[in-house]
Amino acid sequence: MARTLTIDGQEDTVLAEASAVLARGLPVAIPTETVYGLAADATNAEAVRRIYAVKGRPSINPLICHMSDLAMAEGYATFDPLSRRLAEAFWPGPLTLVLPLKPDSPIARETTAGLTTVGIRVPQGFAGALIAAYGKPLAAPSANPSGRISPTAASHVEAGLGERLELILDGGPATVGVESTIVKVEADGTLRLLRPGGLSADEIERVAGVTLTRGKAGAAAIEAPGMLPSHYAPRAAVRMNATEVRPGEAFLKFGADSVPGEDKAAAIFALSASGNAAEAASHLFELMKRADEAGVTSIAVSPIPSTGLGEAINDRLVRAAAPRPGPVTDEGTS
């Protein structure tokens, strides 16, 4: 069973212990502002393979490389002017840029799933300090069994992966609550949104000065994490845009207005009583877990406008509600 170390008040000790585990090629669960990540040395192929094994994650699904700052990132990938402008505006923060790998980049092929591009992010807070102390980038998908709800607290990691890990770092609840937004600048200058997340499209477009294009560009390969059709899934079925609650369902409520059948819900969880998308995003995965733990077979979710962070919320809900390729278990789906 994993040891859990609380970061608050003992950061230097935790940095040293986590760095030692990483140096042995083992993954460590770390807090970030988005969700908790399962981190390992991105330049060590065996360490990265352990991430896939611990999560039960398909090896075709690339991992994001987390860097300590822009200067570190420039050592591994090539930045075009627009990507650089976005990095300077939003790093550290919940933005991932998909960039061409430098020809001599030591990032392991397993990290990028064999692609010639790599997703790079500079996280806020302790995660950035750990990368700086370790001195190498960390590959870090969410610290949960593959396909399941992402963790926003150390206790979520312990429940899902505690028996498979040596060390979990507890930095308190994640403040953003959904994964990073992933964008890519194409060769023709098009700015493409691969995954909505904790940074809204409006903010990115304001800095970029161009409109984001949604979706794939005809690519056969998965270019970034979070693009599999079924993902972020609870055991219960998810029913989006629910304007009524069916008897025995759990209900994730957005806004204050009552809906028909609410009195017959097995449990009600408020994503945001005021209808604030940022607040709802920070609560989404935690409340999905609590709804699932209520033992229901269906979770109804209020309609949520796809503006601002509502786009990221609805992306996660669509994937949580998607048909699943197999039974959802603690080992995840593949």
UniProtKB/TrEMBL annotation:
<comment type="similarity">
    <text>Belongs to the SUA5 family.</text>
</comment>
<feature type="binding site">
    <location>
        <position position="180"/>
    </location>
    <ligand>
        <name>L-threonine</name>
    </ligand>
</feature>
<feature type="binding site">
    <location>
        <position position="57"/>
    </location>
    <ligand>
        <name>ATP</name>
    </ligand>
</feature>
<feature type="binding site">
    <location>
        <position position="66"/>
    </location>
    <ligand>
        <name>L-threonine</name>
    </ligand>
</feature>
<dbReference type="InterPro" id="IPR038385">
    <property type="entry name" value="Sua5/YwlC_C"/>
</dbReference>
<keyword id="KW-0819">tRNA processing</keyword>
<dbReference type="GO" id="GO:0006450">
    <property type="term" value="P:regulation of translational fidelity"/>
</dbReference>
<dbReference type="InterPro" id="IPR005145">
    <property type="entry name" value="Sua5_C"/>
</dbReference>
<feature type="binding site">
    <location>
        <position position="34"/>
    </location>
    <ligand>
        <name>L-threonine</name>
    </ligand>
</feature>
<feature type="binding site">
    <location>
        <position position="195"/>
    </location>
    <ligand>
        <name>ATP</name>
    </ligand>
</feature>
<protein>
    <recommendedName>
        <fullName>Threonylcarbamoyl-AMP synthase</fullName>
        <ecNumber>2.7.7.87</ecNumber>
    </recommendedName>
</protein>
<dbReference type="InterPro" id="IPR017945">
    <property type="entry name" value="DHBP_synth_RibB-like_a/b_dom"/>
</dbReference>
<dbReference type="InterPro" id="IPR010923">
    <property type="entry name" value="T(6)A37_SUA5"/>
</dbReference>
<dbReference type="InterPro" id="IPR050156">
    <property type="entry name" value="TC-AMP_synthase_SUA5"/>
</dbReference>
<dbReference type="GO" id="GO:0000049">
    <property type="term" value="F:tRNA binding"/>
</dbReference>
<feature type="binding site">
    <location>
        <position position="121"/>
    </location>
    <ligand>
        <name>L-threonine</name>
    </ligand>
</feature>
<dbReference type="Pfam" id="PF03481">
    <property type="entry name" value="Sua5_C"/>
</dbReference>
<keyword id="KW-0548">Nucleotidyltransferase</keyword>
<feature type="binding site">
    <location>
        <position position="142"/>
    </location>
    <ligand>
        <name>L-threonine</name>
    </ligand>
</feature>
<dbReference type="Pfam" id="PF01300">
    <property type="entry name" value="Sua5_yciO_yrdC"/>
</dbReference>
<feature type="binding site">
    <location>
        <position position="150"/>
    </location>
    <ligand>
        <name>ATP</name>
    </ligand>
</feature>
<dbReference type="InterPro" id="IPR006070">
    <property type="entry name" value="Sua5-like_dom"/>
</dbReference>
<feature type="binding site">
    <location>
        <position position="61"/>
    </location>
    <ligand>
        <name>ATP</name>
    </ligand>
</feature>
<keyword id="KW-0963">Cytoplasm</keyword>
<keyword id="KW-0067">ATP-binding</keyword>
<feature type="binding site">
    <location>
        <position position="117"/>
    </location>
    <ligand>
        <name>ATP</name>
    </ligand>
</feature>
<feature type="binding site">
    <location>
        <position position="232"/>
    </location>
    <ligand>
        <name>ATP</name>
    </ligand>
</feature>
<dbReference type="GO" id="GO:0061710">
    <property type="term" value="F:L-threonylcarbamoyladenylate synthase"/>
</dbReference>
<feature type="domain" description="YrdC-like">
    <location>
        <begin position="12"/>
        <end position="199"/>
    </location>
</feature>
<dbReference type="GO" id="GO:0005737">
    <property type="term" value="C:cytoplasm"/>
</dbReference>
<dbReference type="GO" id="GO:0003725">
    <property type="term" value="F:double-stranded RNA binding"/>
</dbReference>
<dbReference type="GO" id="GO:0005524">
    <property type="term" value="F:ATP binding"/>
</dbReference>
<comment type="function">
    <text>Required for the formation of a threonylcarbamoyl group on adenosine at position 37 (t(6)A37) in tRNAs that read codons beginning with adenine.</text>
</comment>
<keyword id="KW-0547">Nucleotide-binding</keyword>
<keyword id="KW-0808">Transferase</keyword>
<dbReference type="GO" id="GO:0008033">
    <property type="term" value="P:tRNA processing"/>
</dbReference>
<feature type="binding site">
    <location>
        <position position="140"/>
    </location>
    <ligand>
        <name>L-threonine</name>
    </ligand>
</feature>
